[in-house]
Amino acid sequence: MILMQTPKFSAVKQGIVELKRYRGKEYSHLKVALGRSVKKGGAIKVSRGVYFIPSPENVSKLLSLADRRVIYQVVKSVYEEFHRDLKLVLIYGSYARGDFDPKSDVDVLVVAGGDGRGLADRLSKKLGVKVDLKVIAEPYFKRLMVVEPKVHFWLKEGIVFDEAGIVKDVYPLGRIGIYEALRNAHTQIELSQEADIPEKGYYLLVALRELLTVKHVLDLDFDYRNVKDEFVGVAGRSALEILRSKRGTGVSGEQLKGWKKLVDELYLELEQRHKGLGESIGDLYIKKFVRGRREQT
Asked: Cα separation of 177 and 185, whole Å?
């Protein structure tokens, strides 16, 4: 995939460009062209003499985000950090949807080689907002699509920079993913039974959010705003602040009783729906993934 080409020098392809590989006029013309491209946003300078050229689609997408300073700087910095090893950058959550507030984090999932250690802290200090950045390898990302329902919400709502084409073949959520989500909700319910009153409300609300996510997944509705609206509709707007603070201060016994009844009924309903599910291609992928790991050990 060619991004730029002039009669003065050879075609420069998407990916890493190292000036030391060129000589004479070819070097001079390429250096000038890359410098101009960096200013226009068509290339990213990684270090002295080393540049990264994203795919044309991703260049256009990055340029369209220039007026969204936080997202633009996060994505540009991720490209600078990982360049040749970068497969995917996914901005999701409130900053992707545009409904963030001063307390919101910038949620970033990166599929790449390396760990990007310290990058989140550097970006948080530079931008003045908390950047929650996770880095995973490509095989784990494919596994995550099968076992984590939230990934499908992230891909639908998110801003995706796919340098390796890994989201073109999205694996469907597996039956195992629904099972894991229900098990997580059940753990939160159990924790609520042992917690004091302020924490009890928090655990019940975490369980409720998890269960509503599963409900919308089973209804093939991957719009997180609909999950949030239903959550607020049944638990009240104050429930959002409880989730953030992780304390249910001021929650009445009547509210706790209502949330517990709602959570228990929803859990039983979703458990029955889960039992009626068959295996998907995602489940078969997980079995193959696990079998491969066993053969390696």
From this structure: 12
Q: How far apart are CA 1 and CA 130, in angstroms?
A: 35
Element (H, E) at 18: strand 15-18
Identify the residue whose tokens are 């929803």.
Answer: 266
Q: Please, are residues 85 and 114 in contact by the beta-carbon 8 Å criterion?
A: yes
Tell how far CA 159 is from the center of its chain. 9
- Read off the tokens for 129: 């907002």
Residue pLDDT, tens place only, 200-257: 999 999 999 999 999 999 999 999 999 999 999 999 999 998 998 887 777 888 999 9
CA–CA distance, 149 with 180 (Å, rounded to integer): 9
Helix (H, G, I), strand (E, B) or coil at 181: helix
- The tokens of 138 are what? 């490509």
Q: pLDDT band for 12, please (50, 70, 90 cuts).
A: low
User: What phi-psi label fits residue 10: left (phi over 0), alpha (psi between -120 and 50 degrees) or beta?
Assistant: beta
Q: Is the Cβ–Cβ distance between 283 and 176 less than 8 Å? A: yes
DSSP, collapsed to helix, strand or coil, labels residue 119 as helix
What tokens were used for 269? 């309903």
pLDDT in tens, 120-174: 999 999 999 999 999 999 989 988 988 999 999 999 999 999 999 998 877 788 8
Q: Cα–Cα distance between 148 and 217 in angstroms, integer?
A: 11
Residues whose CB falls within 8 Å of the CB of residue 185, separated by 6 or more in sequence, listed in order? 207, 210, 211, 214, 263, 267
CA dist., res. 16 & res. 75, Å (int): 17
- Confirm if 192 and 240 have CB atoms less than 8 A apart: no
Q: Quick check: 97 and 157 in contact, CB under 8 A? A: yes
Looking at the DSSP bridge assignments, the partners of residue 52 are 16, 44
For residue 194, what are the contacts with CB-CB under 8 A and spacing of at least 6? none
Q: Alpha helix locations (H) across 52-135?
A: 56-64, 69-82, 94-97, 119-127
